[in-house]
Amino acid sequence: MAIPPFLKTIAQAPYYRTNWHDALREVPAAFQFKRHRIEDPAEFLAELDIDPAAAFSGFQGWRPILEDAIRRVKAAEGHQGACSIEDGMILYGLCRALKPRVVIETGVAAGISTSFIGAAMAENGSGMHYSIELPPADVNPDRKRHDDGGEFAWPRGGVGWAIPEQVKAGLGKRHRLILEDVRIALPRLLDQVGPVDLFFHDDLHTPAQMRWQFRLVWPRIAPGGVLAADDANIGWIDFCREFGLSQRMFSNVQRLTAVRKPATVGLVQ
Length: 269
Prior knowledge:
The protein is an alpha/beta fold and about 270 residues long. It contains 12 helices and 6 strands.
């Protein structure tokens, strides 16, 4: 009998060896995520009150370019951390429909999620895209796995090595890559940019890291803005419960989750 992927993750992640409470809670959470999984990105966006037609405007022109980037990453040596086409469509759709003034993502790796966000930003023609990633030189080459069980080879090619030239050209100076520990860079960036329209977490996927980021960022999300996360775990569930967002707690596409702040809710500074 094959071992479920989530059990492999728990077994391989150093974090869970010293955080047994979170490890035990992950088991029922994984079944809930599976039970509430959505296959269609358009359906997922509609749940967030986002019109799929507006969300995917211009996407067909970018799709071959973005799919080629995914193929290049999958063909590269080692695990590069690429998101799927479905996850990418959600990121593109969120960015295209929200037309954000400020987008922040934590975790870049080879740059696939950055590419989908960047393509939408290029179509929008406005807004700033900020990406935070640990400098490759700071990644310990002797460490077998990160705390969340991840084992990546992207540092060999450099941060964002797979971002298509068309995306870079479309964004121009509206993309800022911050090579620094997220615990230092993110609080400072939030103080600099003001309200955030779209935030995407895709760096260290431990419950503790996710709880910290979501608690920090959610009060800074603009009315009508979205906070999204890949590889959701018990940290996401704790965040949703803490901020009264339980209605969106388990809805996901391949463990990518998102919540939207009501447009009538004021920003908490």
